[in-house]
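Schema walk-through. Below, the input block comes first and the output block second. Nothing else is stored per chain. Lengths vary across the set, and this one has 147 residues.
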Amino acid sequence: MDELDPERDRDGLAVPWEEVRRDYELGRLTRNGIAHRYRLRRGQLDVRARTHKWVRPGSKRALDRQLLIARLLGLLERQMDLVEEEMDKGTRVDSKVLNDLVRDLDKLITMERAEGHTEGTITDPGEASEMRRKLEARINAITKGLT
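--- output ---
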C-alpha cells in the first residue's frame, strides 16, 4: 500500500490549506465537515491543525490567551493609576517606570494584533482596543507633564 501524501487530498489534488485553516478557525463547520468539504482524512486535518497551532473558537487555548491579554491590560491600567497617584502627590516618576509601561503596552498591542487574526472569538476586540487607546493617552499626558 502506498503511503498517503499529507499535502494531497483523497483525490490526489493539492490541498488549499489556507482555506482549510480559515474554515477551521472560524468554527462554522465541524472538523468532520471540514474534512469532508476538502476531501481530507480526519487525521490529516487534525495533524495539520495541531502542527500549525490552529485554534478553534471557544477552545481552551483561545480562551486562555484572550483572558491573559485582558488581565495584562487591566494590570497595565492599574500600574498607570499608581503612577498618576504618585505624581499627584508630587512624587517624581522615574523615566524607567514610564519606559517600562510603554514597552509593556507595545507588547500587549502586539499580542492583541496577533490574537485579532482569529475571527469568532468571544471577547470584544473593541474593548481591548479602547483600553489601549486610553492607556496611550494617559502615557502621553504623563510624559508631556514631565517635559
